[in-house]
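== Fold encoding ==
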Amino acid sequence: MDQQALVTSAAGDDPADGLRAVRALRDLAERLETLQVERARRLGWSWQEIAAALGVSRQAVHKKHNRRI
C-alpha cells in the first residue's frame, strides 16, 4: 500500500481499512526506529542520547533494541 492509500484508508469511514492502515503505519514506524537506532549506535551515540531523541527512558530503548544490535 502506498503512502497516499495509507492516509486515505486511515482517515476513511471503513474501520477495517482504517485499522489495517494503522497497523501498516505502526510496522513502518518500528522498522524506521530500528534502522535509526542502529545507525545512531554505529555513529557512537549513547543509549541515553537515543532515548532522549525518542522521548523514552534509556532503559526502555536499551531493552527494546540492545538484542538487535
